[in-house]
Amino acid sequence: MSTPPPNTPLSTASGIPLADNQNSISAGPRGPLLLQDFHLLEKLQHFNRERIPERVVHAKGSGAYGTFTVTHDIAAYTKARLFSEVGKQTATFARFSTVGGERGSADTERDPRGFAVRFYTEEGNWDLVGNNTPMFFIKDPIKFPDFVHTQKRDPQSNLKSAEMMFDFWSHAPESLHQVTMLFSDRGTPDGYRHMDGFGSHTYSLINADGQRVYVKWHFKTRQGIKNLSAAEAGRLAGADPDYAQRDLFGAIERGEFPQWEVKLQVATEEQLAQWEQRTGWNPFDLTKVWPHADFPLLPVGIFELNRNPDNYHAEVEQAAFSPANAVPGMGYSPDKMLQGRLFAYHDAQLYRVGTNHQHLPVNAARCPFHNQQRDGGMAINNGGAARNYANLAAAGSAPQGLGHGEAALALQGGAARYDGRGAEDDFSQAGNLFRILTPQGKQNLFDNLAGPLSQVREETLQRQLAHFDRADPAYGAGVRAALQALGKPA
């Protein structure tokens, strides 16, 4: 609903003017209230229902509108029209968030940050749903509910638990790369404007000739990377738990529009196969990154946020992203975590917002759309008199030159449950990340880890320390020294 014109009289939701919004209808001045007071009933009924379920992850977030401007030609890689010419602009909406906290949690908690961007293109909505880190904790979506439960609350005490977190992480060496990033200074970014964003997953682009390349998306902040110390993040969690939202909203209101340089890593299937043979790293494993030395960043465009929403609930809380929203010229990859998210995100929005959440203004495509989906709650655009079915063509489903029309994604292997854990390298990239930290950055990492590790069982502690040792002996030694300083020998 748009903002009503000035001096519009107060009314019921059906538009009926109200005579009195201060007093209920009663039988006499002190008598009981009457059921006929529909305004009272409507007001209380709506109040009881004005919350939708919060997101299971990414519950606390901030959003804004903006633009994406193409600065470099990438037509060799994709036929997507939003990249069709240098200078072209596309409207966008972005939502930033913490991951593990509830909707009322603090913006400055040590946590990855969600970095989701919607592009309202002439071919439909493209949602790039990522984080402020290029990797993640796990590589198979079947473990995602287990992992997220460890970041929430203990089922008995209803308290956050360091033991739960490190019990899971210590049994999952694949998490070490992300754990190292999380407990570094980048685990507490200074608001949303001063952090990078990543598509994180491996995606693909398809050009006009049907050729596919695999890509990684990067958003490099033009404001510069700034992080909070652990002490300052903790202070702000109490003094201003909405710190990041206040910073983003205020900057846009002042006309200080934040910008990110959008860049791309590109590789053919053959190049990735050669790289995997040389390094032993699966290019579709979300716990790994593609080193820039092997796959340089290519400039694509500028992403800017320049307008705050008018209504938080309608435009930010009800914003419903899904990585399955990929326009023609874009595609997916064998990344197992991506494959799981293609289902899970849309399904979550169906439950959280409703069957027709894509009809809401913040979610609706800004180009014409047509399908046979009908009915259900909030059917704002229900297709009018158009047929709600499509006939089966006698010639089958030969491509008509519209839509994705992409070349087949080659798959191989028998259908089975494959477990490569223990045989894969989960330590080298974590060690590489550790070694590029400054001396002070390493000490901050040690201290940030020592706090929660001092609260875990000895068995869990030793299992986690062994992972640090395998990444780099100096890593494990540094954490042990930090634990010693806290009075917990390791």
Automatic annotation (TrEMBL):
Pfam families: Catalase (PF00199), Catalase-rel (PF06628). Its cofactor is heme. The active site is at H58, N131. The keyword Transmembrane helix does not apply. PROSITE patterns: CATALASE_1, CATALASE_2, CATALASE_3. It is an enzyme of class 1 (oxidoreductase). InterPro entries: Catalase (IPR018028), Catalase_3 (IPR040333), Catalase_AS (IPR024708), Catalase_clade1/3 (IPR024711), Catalase_core (IPR011614), Catalase_haem_BS (IPR002226), Catalase_immune_responsive (IPR010582), Catalase_sf (IPR020835). Residues 1-24 are annotated as: Disordered. GO terms for cellular component: cytoplasm. Residues 11-397 form the Catalase core domain. Keywords: Heme, Hydrogen peroxide, Iron, Metal-binding, Oxidoreductase, Peroxidase. It catalyses: 2 H2O2 = O2 + 2 H2O. Residues 9-24 have a biased composition (Polar residues). Its EC number is 1.11.1.6. SMART domains: Catalase. One of its GO terms (biological process) is response to hydrogen peroxide. The keyword Manganese does not apply. Heme binds at Y345. It comes from the Bacteria. Homodimer. Decomposes hydrogen peroxide into water and oxygen; serves to protect cells from the toxic effects of hydrogen peroxide. Belongs to the catalase family. This is Catalase. It comes from Janthinobacterium psychrotolerans.
